[in-house]
Write a structure and sequence with these properties.
The protein is an alpha+beta fold. The protein is built from 15 helices and 16 strands. A 9-stranded mixed sheet has the order 2-6-7-10-1-11-12-13-14. A 3-stranded antiparallel sheet has the order 5-4-15, with no helix packed on it. A two-stranded antiparallel sheet has the order 3-16. Helix 3 links the parallel strand 12 and strand 13. The chain is elongated and about 95 Å long. The termini are far apart.
Length: 475
């Protein structure tokens, strides 16, 4: 029997607030354990939470970008469960009245547009982190406890690992454009939990779902889903039963393993948090947030194609981050050759940025300096080859292109008199090739151009060399 995967996704995005969801503690990553805590996020008796307004605004911003309805009234609830990194014995979350509902996002998969519906996006606080050492001991770091999270839940609209990865990448780009999450999956700022079931092809009813817990990379998401599809297919094909459970992905073994049986909502005994009043969101606040929304990645990508005439691939790469798209447009505003700028940004610049782990917004080669380099090539002051060769040094030093070219004596030779002298010497040394060209073997011209370039130390203007060589050989 052929089975069809049915996949929904829960994504937890840490919000880029300076303080936690219900207290004033900081949210910086990587500080010594338990140094960003207070009686509130430690769950001490008698403490009272206070809602972080910035987190609520970030949730509104995200909901609007995801085409969600923003609830005029939403409330926080207590989600009860016991775990060492949850000091209160419950998590403050939203259940019956989430802040965002009924949205959607369109993603490109295999050349087709697929609409993924968003069931809800709700605010909650993160748990702490358990640390396990080699000796079998465990410790708890509560720095992360109370960090604002936005949990974004889709409908079961995906049918393959490729659908999931495309959705995740589009969502991550959007969250980073909105500046609500840094998208750092390695540090746990963005974590996803696929819910996957199989059903016989053509059947409408869903099968029993399995949750894959806390996966933190696109690669692992794809591998875990592909493995789980094969595992469930084998179980069903052999007449077995799929159990509703939570499984962990082990990247070293390349397989999932049971973590625990899957909880239902009633297991958490949700009830409204008595310490927090319902949140009222005025229509004016929603419109104020809407007015400040940036141009989103998908819209910007389409504009780059229509306005600048870029290929779809170029536009996709350049709009993958807001910093990079801004950098590109800053260059094009100064140098009106979009495709040339695109080639340099996607090639030389991205290579250096990726190697140094630097975002485009902090590039040592500013848009002004990249444009200066391109103008030197465009005017014929230096060759394209020289420009590419000196770019790593420009990136490392932050020097101006004009100064570096002058100091290294890299100015291109375009003077016809000097070039004719070099060409005469080359033709004298290579009479056989000159005769072959005159006899109609035009491909020999490339060899002769190369000899002139070699004689000039790479400084000769290739266009001028071509022009003068043809003129000489036709005489």
């Amino acid at each position: 029997m052929t089975y069809e995967p049915v996949i929904g996704l829960e994504v937890h995005a840490q919000l880029l607030t300076q303080s936690k969801m219900f207290c004033g503690c900081g949210t910086r990553f990587g500080l010594p354990a338990n140094t960003q805590t207070c009686p509130i996020c430690l769950g001490m008796p008698g403490t009272l939470p206070v809602i972080n307004r910035a987190a609520v605004e970030m949730a509104i911003r995200t909901g609007l970008a995801l085409n969600c309805r923003i609830a005029p009234t939403n409330r926080f609830a207590r989600k009860n469960y016991f775990y060492p990194d949850l000091p209160k014995g419950y998590q403050i979350s939203q259940y019956e009245a989430p802040i965002c509902e009924h949205g959607w996002i369109d993603v490109e998969v295999g050349g087709e547009t697929r609409r993924i519906r968003i069931r809800r996006a709700h605010l909650e606080e993160d748990a702490g982190k358990n640390l396990h050492d080699a000796g079998g001991g465990s410790r708890v770091d509560l720095n992360r406890a109370g960090t604002p999270l936005l949990e974004i839940v889709t409908e079961p609209d995906m049918r393959s690992a490729d659908h999931v990865v495309a959705y995740l990448k589009a969502l991550r780009d959007m969250l980073m454009y909105l500046e609500v999450c840094d998208g750092n999956m390695e540090e746990g700022s963005l974590r996803c939990e696929p819910n996957l079931s199989l059903r016989p092809a053509g059947q409408q009813a869903f099968g029993t779902k399995v949750e894959l817990k806390n996966i933190n990379s696109f690669k692992f998401v794809k591998e875990a889903i592909d493995y789980e599809i094969k595992r469930q297919t084998k179980v069903l094909s052999e007449g077995g039963t799929i159990h509703q459970e939570t499984r962990l992905w082990d990247p070293e073994k390349g397989q999932t393993a049971v973590m625990r049986s899957k909880e239902e909502a009633h297991d958490y005994r949700y009830f409204p948090d008595p310490d927090l009043v319902p949140v009222k969101i005025a229509p004016e606040w929603i419109e104020e947030v809407r007015a400040k929304l940036p141009e989103l990645p998908a819209v910007r990508q389409r504009r780059f194609v229509t306005e600048y005439g870029l290929p779809e691939y170029d536009a996709g790469v350049l709009t993958s981050s807001r910093d990079l798209a801004d950098y590109f447009e800053a260059c094009v505003a100064r140098f009106g050759q979009p495709k040339t700028v695109s080639n340099w940004v996607m090639g030389e610049l991205l290579r250096e940025l990726n190697q140094s782990g630097t975002p485009a917004g902090r590039s040592p080669v500013t848009p002004e300096r990249l444009v200066s380099l391109l103008q030197l090539v465009d005017k014929g002051t230096i060759s394209l080859k020289v420009a590419r060769e000196i770019f790593p040094e420009l990136y490392a030093s932050g020097a101006s292109p004009e100064r570096l070219v002058q100091e290294k004596g890299l100015t291109q030779v375009s003077d016809e008199g000097a070039l004719e002298k070099m060409i005469d010497e080359v033709l004298t040394k290579n009479p056989a090739q000159a005769a072959q060209y005159r006899a109609g073997k035009e491909q020999v011209l490339g060899f002769l151009v190369g000899q002139v370039m070699k004689a000039s130390g790479g400084k000769a203007n290739p266009g001028k060399v071509n022009e003068l060589l043809k003129r000489k050989l036709s005489q």
